[in-house]
Write a structure and sequence with these properties.
Blueprint lengths: L6 H14 L1 H8 L3 H19 L5 H5 L3 H24 L4 H25 L8 H21 L7 H11 L3 H8 L4 H16 L1 H18 L10 H15 L4 H23 L4 H7 L1 H25 L2
Length: about 300
């Protein structure tokens, strides 16, 4: 079975193409730019809020305490390791922070959330989003080829996918190649990582607030409203009160918002600039991708043992 390309990955790719094709590049860089920047910033936050409707605390608790500890360990070690690797390649701290967040938690959504709480410029999110999209797409093609050489059961493969692939759509595209059992556990493991988005960005926001106070600048909020909205949607989903139709509508609207946001971010990527400045970033991202894949594999084997 050939995995399908997730819609969010396609949105970034289409934005990138639109920004670099002669027929559309001038329009993208000119009259369309304010709207695309608005989408990349504000529609991204709306999509993050609705992402909470996909996370049920009851499903996550069903994994058991050991699995939750292991997944949390993968996120924290992956975050710290990725940050260290990116800095080792002498990339800026802001880039390292965004790449670490996207790779360890939930791809471009996490990058958008972290950029908001740390007041990182919109233009500085472009390279991390491109890297997380590229490596997530790489996982879609490569991980299914490794299932049999590594002698993984469908459950172990699904847990590995959920623990190591970046975006939710990329997880689904990868895990479905091994069947419904693999897909089921992959989504639950992945959503456990998504749930950690709120505490990680809240801690980052509080640290940034403390630094801002020290420098006597205007204080950012302790926890941004869109993070509170994300947590509220998780709580609402976990009650079990929402009918399937509402959840489906929320998922559809989230896809529209994130798709528009990622098209906007992709449209800010200039291939010539990326090739000129992105070599070290690409090597750092591949090293980080390998680190998280190894951490996720270890956790998956323990979870399904």
């Amino acid at each position: 079975m050939v995995p399908a390309l997730p819609a969010m990955t396609a949105a970034v790719a289409l934005g990138l193409l639109a920004a670099n094709l002669p027929g559309t590049a001038v329009w993208i860089a000119g009259r369309a730019r304010p709207g695309l920047d608005f989408a990349g910033k504000h529609l991204m936050r709306g999509g993050i809020i609705l992402l909470g409707l996909k996370v049920s605390v009851m499903d996550i608790l069903g994994l058991g305490w050991l699995a939750m500890v292991l997944i949390t360990g993968v996120v924290l070690l992956g975050f710290a390791g990725t940050y260290f690797l990116v800095r080792l390649f002498r990339l800026p701290r802001e880039t390292a922070l965004l790449v670490a967040t996207g790779f360890s938690i939930c791809g471009a959504s996490a990058i958008g959330a972290m950029a908001a709480v740390r007041r990182i410029r919109h233009v500085d999110t472009v390279l991390p989003v491109a890297l997380v999209t590229l490596c997530g797409t790489l996982a879609i093609g490569l991980l299914p080829l490794l299932m049999h050489p590594l002698q993984l059961s469908p459950l172990a493969f699904g847990a590995w996918t959920g623990a190591s692939v970046h975006d939710v759509g990329q997880v689904v595209a990868t895990a479905q190649t091994a069947g419904t059992a693999a897909l089921g556990i992959a989504v639950i493991v992945k959503l456990t990582r998504v749930l950690l988005l709120a505490p990680v960005v809240a801690v980052a926001g509080m640290h940034h607030r403390a630094s801002t106070v020290t420098q006597q600048h205007a204080m950012p909020p302790v926890i941004p409203l869109f993070v509170i909205g994300f947590v509220a949607m998780v709580a609402l989903r976990s009650t079990g009160w929402l009918p399937a139709g509402v959840l489906d509508a929320g998922a559809g609207l989230q896809d529209v918002l994130l798709g528009a946001a990622l098209f906007g971010l992709g449209s800010a990527v200039r291939i010539r600039t990326l090739l000129h400045t992105g070599t070290r970033a690409l090597l750092a991202a591949l090293a980080a991708w390998l680190l998280i894949a190894l951490l996720g594999l270890g956790a998956a084997l323990l979870i399904t043992a």
